[in-house]
Design goal:
Chain A is α+β, with helices and mostly antiparallel strands. Chain A contains 16 helices and 20 strands. By secondary structure, chain B is α+β, with helices and mostly antiparallel strands. Chain B has one domain. The chains are: A alpha+beta (about 550), B alpha+beta (about 100). Bound molecules: protoporphyrin IX containing FE and iron/sulfur cluster.
């Protein structure tokens, strides 16, 4: 795990004190809300439907048990005993008091955490593969590159007031587990023909009201040019991004309007200009960072066989564990999607349990997945049964990774002031429906994603099945979308037709899965069948 | 009718103008038609409320009920966590909100 050096700690501590002073002045009336709002947003503090909301950054989704315990303590001490893990691998608290906010930030700083750059038009928390450092198929651990970019982008003066928010994801495998091409910049660490490592840059992806898949603008940037190239991408955007219109201000619109070729040309021009400016940190810095992400002391002789004699356990193993680069280990996914529960919510007690289990069984490491689950990245196969038993007892043993129950849902109208409709109850009712009809397992991989408004925080454009909440004359209404993906087979979902009410959307989801069951060929996932047979059979079943 | 609402500056709690003060209970809210801007300005200046604004409402069984679902969710709390709402023991409250 990365550890703060003296600069990191000093910066974060200074920011806490600065914010403490700002909050005090707001409470004393020396700052108006208009003056204070940009300051609190720079520290992740929003005003939402029921209270202030605090978004805490979890860089590339990696946590240790001490940090998870601190998050649990914050939930108990300052919130209502729970937190919500988000699609950007962060955590949000929904019931924060302004009076407490600086104390919370101070508690976070003690465990090398903060809420800086989790809001506002800056470079946000950098996300990555939740199986980084563990995945059998990764080229290298992507996190050192994400960390290098985190250091570069933290408090970057030139990029603190971009035209709009800016999100970066870094992966290092062909399988994309981080929705890389739906980011403002997606970076894939690759090798060239000479076997050297470099970075493929994908720029101008995103969701929101105008979803776009990022085109590759450079298939190979040498690693000793990584930061310089990113800087060139940002500079062109900072200069020409549409500051006149907030709905057109994301980089995806610039890349789209200029065309990928012209945007790339401008980036290359800027890159050449930047090359002699000394932007790039020495490679030694990358090497230093890599030191923090070295493999833990794996037991290389560990037994690679799993005793599957307990049938419930075997189901969980099949669903929720993933191949590890060490044969004696797996990555285990803790589902935060109990049927009927709130996707991504965890109580303080559950957080503590997950932290303790990480300490006992996963070299003290946890990851937040963008699908709002938690990963223990390095679990010995021999320890799996004990881990599962502890999870199951705490209601954390749902065997439903990547199934129709594993729904991404944004907070929606239950918590979010921008929402048009509720997302969470829809997720709950769909999961309940499929748990009851027993089809969760047989439907296989089915990614269902729900957003409560066009901002698409719930990734509905990228769902095999997507649901978008809209406001129809003051009544919640839900549009159904099919055929999206945020993985390496990235695609954008298409709307089926007129929307449905709350009951209708649950039925509609069942209807499209029935079409799939009737039409699927061997080995096809829902999305494969959709791609093969097209929208019409689904439309006919839905609208007759 | 029109209700004036905002958030408590210190706690962020949703509050409603009662004619003389702010209450977390929407039942206490009064009609502010005509005077909404004036009250909002002076109350915000007095730091008794954060970002106040007026919303449409109707009388429902003698109490004000905001016209828009978002304001009703604000008034009571998240529909998915009845235990955290202002009326955890009221089985009918879901119907009032939705
Ligand atoms: C409740 C407070 C939240 C607010 C006010 C909020 C606001 C927004 C807005 C305005 C956008 C659109 C930005 C744009 O296209 O320019 C957006 C996008 C997004 N938000 Fe949220 N959001 C909230 C919560 C969340 C949560 C809980 C998550 C994770 C579950 C999340 C993840 C995202 C993602 C992934 C996007 C799409 C990024 C893109 O367009 O590329 N947000 N959010
Ligand atoms: S998609 Fe809309 S409703 Fe959902 S969290 Fe984002 S802004 Fe709120």
């Amino acid at each position: 795990m990365y550890e703060y050096d003296q600069y990191d700690q000093a910066m974060v501590d200074a920011r806490v004190e600065e914010f403490r002073d700002q909050a005090r002045r707001r409470l004393e009336g020396k700052l108006t809300e208009d003056q204070f709002k940009p300051l609190r947003l720079m520290n992740g503090l929003y005003l939402q439907l029921h209270a202030y909301m605090l978004r805490v950054a979890v860089p590339y989704g990696t946590l240790d048990s001490r940090q998870m315990h601190a998050l649990a303590d914050i939930a108990d001490k300052y919130d209502r005993g729970y937190g919500h893990f988000t699609t950007r691998q962060n955590i949000q608290y929904n019931w924060i008091k302004l009076e407490d906010a600086a104390d919370i930030l101070a508690d976070l700083a003690k465990v090398e955490m903060h809420a800086i750059q989790t809001s506002g038009n800056c470079i946000r928390n950098i996300s990555s593969d939740h199986f980084a450092g563990a995945a059998a198929d990764e080229l290298v651990d992507p996190r050192p590159y994400a960390e290098l970019l985190r250091q570069w982008s933290s408090f970057h003066p030139e990029f603190s007031y971009l035209p709009r928010k800016f999100k970066i994801a870094v992966i290092a495998s062909e399988t994309d587990r981080a929705a890389m091409r739906l980011h403002d910049i997606g970076i894939n660490i690759v090798t060239n023909e000479a076997g050297e490592l470099g970075a493929a840059f994908y720029v101008g992806g995103g969701m929101g009201r105008t979803p776009m898949i990022a085109p590759c603008i450079n298939p190979f940037v040498p690693l000793d040019r990584l930061v310089t190239y990113a800087e060139a991408c940002l500079r062109v955007y900072n200069r020409y991004g549409r500051r006149d219109n907030k709905y057109k201000a994301r980089i995806k619109i610039l890349v789209h309007e200029l065309g990928a070729e012209e945007y790339t040309r401008q980036v290359e021009e800027e890159f050449v200009h930047l090359l002699d400016q000394g932007v790039e940190p020495p490679l030694a810095e990358l090497e230093r960072i890599k030191g923090y992400f070295e493999d833990p002391a794996f037991d290389t002789g560990a037994n690679a066989r799993i005793d599957r004699s307990d049938p419930d356990f075997a189901v969980w193993v099949d669903r929720n564990t993933v191949e590890h680069k060490e044969p004696g280990y797996v990555s285990a996914v803790i589902s935060l999607k109990p049927v009927g529960g709130i996707p991504g919510d965890a109580t303080a007690e559950q957080m503590r349990l997950m932290a303790d289990l990480a300490k006992d069984y996963s070299f003290d490491e946890l990851r937040v997945m963008h699908t709002q689950n938690i990963v223990l990245p390095h679990v010995r196969k021999a320890d799996l049964h004990a881990l599962w038993a502890a999870l199951d007892e705490a209601g954390l043993g749902s065997p439903n990774l990547d199934t129709v129950e594993d729904i991404i849902a944004c907070p929606g109208l239950d918590y979010c002031s921008l929402a048009n409709a509720r997302s969470i109850p829809i997720a709950q009712r769909i999961a309940e429906r499929f748990a009851a009809n027993g089809k969760t397992g047989t439907l296989g991989e089915l990614k269902l994603k729900i957003s409560g408004c066009i901002n698409a925080c719930g990734h509905h454009h990228a769902g095999h099945i997507g649901i978008l909440g809209v406001d129809r004359k003051g009544v919640e209404n839900y549009q159904l979308l099919l055929g999206g993906s945020e993985a390496e087979d990235v695609s954008l979902a298409k709307i089926t037709g007129p929307g449905f009410d709350e009951n209708g959307i649950v039925d509609a989801v069942e209807t499209v899965t029935t079409v799939y069951e009737n039409e699927r060929q061997d080995g096809e996932r829902f999305v494969d069948t959709y791609r093969r047979i097209g929208m019409n059979p689904f439309k006919e079943a839905l609208y007759g | 009718m029109r209700l004036l609402t905002g958030n408590d500056l210190k706690t962020g709690a949703v509050t409603w103008w009662t004619g003389s003060d702010w209450s977390i209970h929407v039942e206490d809210a009064v009609d502010v038609t005509g005077s909404e801007d004036e009250i909002a300005r002076s109350e915000e200046a007095a730091r008794r409320v954060n970002v106040p604004y007026a919303v449409d409402a109707e009388l429902h069984e003698g109490s004000p009920r905001p016209s828009h679902i978002k304001e009703r969710v604000r008034a009571i709390g998240p529909t998915v966590r009845p235990d955290l709402t202002l009326k955890p023991a009221d089985p009918e409250i879901g119907n009032w909100v939705i």
